[in-house]
């Protein structure tokens, strides 16, 4: 693509940056736009993946038709099929009218499925059929309906790992991934970070009639060294904070460091460290398994140590005296008076029983459902029943929280 055409696209969609990875993503989007091929956009949360499907739709033959952006992770599992594929009247409680769903309303247009990796497996099967045949059946219906919809999907999860864990269909992945587009994280965009900061600072100054904040050279270097786990969204938030809260308009590295989080490497909500390296878990169930397995290992170690101490005590009682360690350098040791001496009456077994009584062995397998239920209840209690905030605290999607509430009978 010519540089002039690329700059025209950036101006139209207010895209700031000149890094090669960003230019490549825009170039691929414009090349695939005239076709009907499915596109799968990869990238971390906050990198601006939502710009690409808009560019594709506006430069395609479908640009005069409808465009819908749908966040698959925000729709509860119990209603997502109805939202996407529609339903017939009376198919479930509350279905008082027929609904065409997004695939019916967006016929001839474009659907952007954000967070497609959050789709339930049953919904994935329905989506695969639509992509392959253009046919679908509404929830509760028997009539096959036709639709002609261009699908652009995006994900911020490792789809390959989700496939290996059985959470995503491999055939759907290949169907969606006709044309892959990779959006670069902010930390890999170099000087683009400074350009974006300047843009956000200028927008704040114009909107609130204030002087624009400016970075000195040290602040620029600090800004570019930071890892930006929240990407462009985080950079915008920090720029807005500095614009409002900083009394200085010339921002130095010392001033900037007050607004940038100290843990520069953290990009995950929950990280568990283990010997030999770090391992980040994306699934809360895996975290519970890890904790329980470590607890079980600790209990087994304690049992082995107690057994060893018991054997040593038996040896001491059987021999009548302990074996003293060799004394060097003619060191004189004061006589040791035992505290609470063991009675002479009885066997070594009796003596040990007075010092330690081994508890009954608990079952190795702990009830993960009870623990997960308690975590949900406490999260809801801390957030005063606000499900969205509880889901954010637990690091799960709204749909996953809804499914867990239904599973544990916590719905109200």
Descriptive report:
This protein has 412 residues and is an alpha/beta fold. The protein contains 17 helices and eleven strands. The chain has helices at 3-12, 20-32, 51-58, 80-85, 101-105, 121-133, 159-164, 170-176, 192-208, 217-225, 231-245, 253-257, 284-319, 348-355, 368-382, 387-394, 398-407; strands at residues 39-42, 67-71, 110-114, 135-136, 145-146, 150-155, 179-182, 214-215, 250-251, 272-274, 277-279. The strands form four sheets. A five-stranded parallel sheet has the order 2-3-6-1-7, covered by helices on one side. Helix 9 (192-208) crosses helix 11 (231-245) and helix 15 (368-382) crosses helix 16 (387-394). The chain is globular. The model is unreliable at 264-281 and 320-366 (pLDDT under 50).
What characteristics describe this protein?
412 residues; alpha/beta; five-stranded parallel sheet; 17 helices; 11 strands; 46% helix
Please report the distance between the alpha carbons of the first and last residues. Answer: 55 Å
Largest sheet: 5 strands, parallel
Fraction of residues in β-strands: 5-15%
For the residues shown, what is the average pLDDT?
Answer: 81
From the helix content, strand content and strand pairing, which structural class follows?
A: alpha/beta
Indicate the radius of gyration in whole angstroms: 31 Å
Total strands: 11
Globally, the shape reads globular
Spans of at least 5 consecutive residues whose pLDDT stays below 50 are 264-281, 320-366
Q: Which percent bin holds the helix content?
A: 40-55%
Strands side by side in the biggest sheet: 2-3-6-1-7
User: H/E order of the elements?
Assistant: HHEHEHHEHEEEHHEHEHHEHEEHHHHH
Supply the number of helical segments.
17
Oligomer: single chain
């Amino acid at each position: 693509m010519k540089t002039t055409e690329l700059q025209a696209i950036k101006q139209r969609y207010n895209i700031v940056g000149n890094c090669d990875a960003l230019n490549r993503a825009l170039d691929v989007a414009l090349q695939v736009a005239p076709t009907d091929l499915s596109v799968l956009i990869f990238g971390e949360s906050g990198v601006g993946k939502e710009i690409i499907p808009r560019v594709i739709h506006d430069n395609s033959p479908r640009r005069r038709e409808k465009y819908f952006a749908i966040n698959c992770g925000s729709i509860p599992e119990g209603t997502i099929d109805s939202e996407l594929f529609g339903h017939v009247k009376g198919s479930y409680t509350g279905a008082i009218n027929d609904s065409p769903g997004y695939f019916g309303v967006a016929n001839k247009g474009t659907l952007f499925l954000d967070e497609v990796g959050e789709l339930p497996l049953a919904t994935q099967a329905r989506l695969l059929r639509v992509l392959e045949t253009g046919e679908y059946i509404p929830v509760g219906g028997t009539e096959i309906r036709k639709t002609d919809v261009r699908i652009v999907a995006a994900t911020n999860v490792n789809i390959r790992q989700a496939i290996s864990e059985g959470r995503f269909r491999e055939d759907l992945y290949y169907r969606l991934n006709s044309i892959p587009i990779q959006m670069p994280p902010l930390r890999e965009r170099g000087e683009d970070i400074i350009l974006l900061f300047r843009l956000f600072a200028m927008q704040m100054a114009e909107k609130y009639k204030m002087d624009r904040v400016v970075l000195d050279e040290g602040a620029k270097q600090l800004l570019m060294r930071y890892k930006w786990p929240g990407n462009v969204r985080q950079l915008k938030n920090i720029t807005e904070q500095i614009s409002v809260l900083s009394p200085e308009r010339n921002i130095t590295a010392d001033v900037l460091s007050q607004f940038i989080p100290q843990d520069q490497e953290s990009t995950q909500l929950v990280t568990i460290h283990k010997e030999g390296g770090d391992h980040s878990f994306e699934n809360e169930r895996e975290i519970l398994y890890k904790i329980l397995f470590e607890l079980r290992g600790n209990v087994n170690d304690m049992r082995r140590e107690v057994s060893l101490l018991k054997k040593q005590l038996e040896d001491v009682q059987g021999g009548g005296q302990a074996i003293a360690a060799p004394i060097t350098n003619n060191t004189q040791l004061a006589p040791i008076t035992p505290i609470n001496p063991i009675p002479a009456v009885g066997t070594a077994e009796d003596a040990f029983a007075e010092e330690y009584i081994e508890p009954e062995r608990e079952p190795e397998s702990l009830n993960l459902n009870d623990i997960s239920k308690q975590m949900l209840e406490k999260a809801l209690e801390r957030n005063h029943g606000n499900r969205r905030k509880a889901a954010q605290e637990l690091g799960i999607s709204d749909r996953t929280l809804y499914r867990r509430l239904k599973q544990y009978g916590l719905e109200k």
